[in-house]
């Protein structure tokens, strides 16, 4: 036993050292973890902008392709024949009455001079016939001549009056032809195409140039005749171009369907501010959204509130605790920058419209001051 105790005594000291080290490690580990937790503070709330979900009456829209056209677009023709001496260049802006083309008017000028001379000759003859009639009247009163000679003088004066009236017509025709030698713009517009060149000979009725009024534009579209019950002049329709939408009244509805396409013609007239904002010119391709059914009440959110991912779409709701919550939604119709949604969204919910892409569920947020749009404010903005 003494020998075994002597052998165990050298092993006891290392074991005691190891036990002491393990105890110290166990005591220091919680302190180290607590120190690390204190060294990594919680990240600050993410700044976001929010807007409220609203309940609105949505009317489903049928989107039809449309084009921008001018209400005044004409191929201006010559009224008389002649050799062309000048034509307005393409791109020239003309006012109503400005010269679009001119033809050689030398022969017409001579015809006018001849008509003037004939008119003056007949007027002189009429003056002579009137004086002759007056003399015969005096002689008849003095019983110097018979009444037959006076009757002949009266007849001569009347014939000269008719000859002069005919000469006036010939003179007016000559002057009209001289004016028609200059083809004038029937309305304000831009020359977009020339049909003749200088030196060519025109026949009466031949086109000279195409003139388009770029300030009198309208949008033309066609819609199925099955939508006739929802369409009438003045009903709101949506004009879409380049990702932007404008609402305006339907100006013209042609209530006659085409036999081949079974479609109605629709026309709207955007104001100049809308045309400039959307960058629309003659020939621009746009879309026209017309009501396809009766309005229905839906929950709608701003388009910027929708986050689209490969797995589906969602919105981020901010509760009273300022914590982000992801809500899956299904999208429906769109109108005036709003999107119909189906899901757990309720009218009045605060939804993130800027900064939602980076938010994680449960992340704290800070709504930017002055950037929160309430439900009433959003509805008022839409109404305007």
CATH topology of the largest domain: conserved putative lor/sdh protein from methanococcus maripaludis s2 fold
Number of helices, where a helix is a run of at least 4 consecutive DSSP H or I residues: 5
User: In percent terms, what proportion of residues is strand?
Assistant: 35-45%
Poorly predicted tracts of residues = 1-8, 377-384
CATH class of the largest domain: Mainly Beta
Q: What can you tell me about this protein's structure?
A:
By secondary structure, the protein is an alpha+beta fold. The protein has four domains: 102 residues, conserved putative lor/sdh protein from methanococcus maripaludis s2 fold; 87 residues, Elongation Factor Tu (Ef-tu), domain 3, CATH 2.40.30; 61 residues, RNA polymerase II/Efflux pump adaptor protein, barrel-sandwich hybrid domain (OB fold (Dihydrolipoamide Acetyltransferase, E2P), Beta Barrel); 76 residues, Helix Hairpins (Orthogonal Bundle), CATH 1.10.287.470. Helices cover 32% and strands 35% of the residues. A seven-stranded antiparallel beta sheet has the order 14-13-17-3-12-16-15, with no helix packed on it. Strands 2-18-22-21-20-19 form a six-stranded antiparallel beta sheet, with helices on one face. It has a four-stranded antiparallel beta sheet with strand order 4-11-9-6, with no helix packed on it. A hairpin with a 2-residue loop joins strand 21 and strand 22. The N and C termini lie far apart (105 Å).
